[in-house]
């Protein structure tokens, strides 16, 4: 196959590109330029989009012996990832920019361009696995090693995108093995630290960056009944589950700590309450998709008389490194509805819930609403 290897400048993508060549594919290395003003040194930009990263990718491509190009997706990235991030926070939601980047850049914009140029697939350094069912349909599965599994951030991929995706590291037992392989191949990135933080917020100060982009105004802190308890200097400075920094000045009636339950930027209010109110009995989202065949086509569920997808047992994961929890999922009135077997906490609208059946990623939704397991007092 003719393959575009997305080379970020890190060790994983370099080894993935080399393995794609050894698998017999005709490979071209591509680095995505996602910023018009990238940081030049990693000390000032802790993500994966610096000029230094581009140079690291080129050195690896030269060693592998493949053509190397830089494709400018900065405008698309700005619109589809950065501005989406700002808009979501301004609406009171907590977005995952890595999910949006995979969905709209790496496996949409990049894949679309690759296919248009006559390539067959895109290879990345993600730790995940594409397998085939008995009929040859592509399925997304967890990687061999739980510690590095990245299937969560790939949960947004569609059946067609999976057909054109290669993950050469999916069966690798450990990151240490990838680093050892990189060193043996002579890659300078063999011991390069993993990227972290949000790549377009180089200093890691997300709150300060958002305050500059969205602004901060004084507003009310409310209890669950709507009573004003105090004031804040900007709703976006608060996160669901936060305990410290509320500065209300007096204890709750029962003397127990208060926690942030909701952030409502449209009214510039923050709702606080007891810790147990963070426990959720239901999550739901209208923006959902299936990674390959859906639950009905896969024989996991059936359709009811009203056309809804009937409840089926699964596991749901809310964050990239969170443990999955048992849940029951259905599709009702255009929503993916997730009901965890035990209440789940620390969840915010805007986050992505990825649904698993065994090791398989079945699909995902962007959480639009939640239901507390603890009713609001009358």
TrEMBL record:
Question: Could you tell me which residue ranges the tRNA-specific 2-thiouridylase MnmA-like C-terminal domain spans?
Answer: 310-367
Cell compartments where the protein resides: Cytoplasm
Molecular function (GO) terms for this protein are: ATP binding; tRNA binding; tRNA-uridine 2-sulfurtransferase activity
EC number(s) on file: 2.8.1.13
- The answer to keyword Transport applying to this record is no
A family per Pfam: tRNA_Me_trans_M
Q: Which UniProt key words apply to this protein? A: ATP-binding, Cytoplasm, Disulfide bond, Nucleotide-binding, RNA-binding, Transferase, tRNA processing, tRNA-binding
Which superkingdom? Bacteria
> Which region ranges are annotated with the description Interaction with tRNA?
148-150
Could you say which protein family the record assigns here? Answer: Belongs to the MnmA/TRMU family.
- What does this chain do? Catalyzes the 2-thiolation of uridine at the wobble position (U34) of tRNA, leading to the formation of s(2)U34.
Protein name per Swiss-Prot or TrEMBL: tRNA-specific 2-thiouridylase MnmA
Source species, please? Conyzicola lurida
């Amino acid at each position: 196959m003719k393959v575009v290897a997305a080379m970020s400048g890190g060790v994983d993508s370099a080894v993935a590109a080399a393995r794609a060549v050894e698998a017999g594919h005709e490979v071209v290395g591509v680095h995505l330029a996602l910023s018009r003003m990238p940081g030049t040194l990693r000390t000032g930009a802790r993500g994966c989009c610096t000029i230094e990263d581009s140079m690291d990718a080129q050195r690896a491509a030269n060693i592998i012996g493949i053509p190397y190009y830089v494709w400018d997706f900065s405008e698309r990235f700005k619109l589809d990832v950065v501005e989406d991030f700002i808009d979501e926070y301004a609406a009171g939601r907590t977005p995952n920019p890595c999910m949006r980047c995979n969905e709209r850049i790496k496996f949409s914009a990049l894949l679309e361009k690759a296919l248009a140029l006559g390539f067959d697939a895109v290879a990345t350094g993600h730790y995940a696995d594409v397998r085939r069912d008995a009929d040859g349909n592509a399925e997304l599965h967890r990687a061999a090693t739980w510690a590095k599994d990245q299937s969560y951030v790939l949960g947004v991929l569609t059946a067609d995108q999976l057909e054109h995706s290669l993950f050469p590291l999916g069966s690798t037992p450990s990151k240490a093995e990838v680093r050892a392989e990189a060193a043996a191949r002579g890659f300078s990135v063999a011991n390069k630290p993993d990227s972290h933080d949000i790549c377009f917020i180089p200093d890691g100060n997300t709150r300060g960056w958002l305050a500059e982009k969205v602004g901060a105004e004084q507003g009310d802190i409310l209890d669950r009944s709507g009573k004003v308890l105090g004031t804040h200097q900007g709703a976006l400075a608060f996160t669901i589950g936060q305990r410290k920094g509320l500065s209300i000045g007096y204890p709750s009636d029962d003397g127990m700590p208060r926690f942030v339950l909701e952030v409502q930027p449209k009214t510039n209010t923050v709702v606080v309450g007891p810790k147990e109110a963070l426990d959720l009995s239901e999550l739901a989202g209208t923006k959902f998709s299936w990674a390959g065949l859906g639950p009905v086509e896969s024989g996991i569920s059936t359709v009811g008389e009203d056309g809804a997808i009937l409840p089926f047992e699964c596991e749901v994961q809310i964050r990239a490194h969170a443990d999955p929890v048992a849940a029951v999922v259905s599709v009702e009135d255009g929503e993916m509805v997730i009901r965890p077997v035990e209440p789940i906490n620390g969840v915010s609208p805007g986050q992505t819930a990825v649904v698993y059946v065994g090791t398989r990623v079945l699909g995902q939704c962007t959480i639009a609403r939640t239901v507390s397991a603890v009713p609001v007092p009358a």
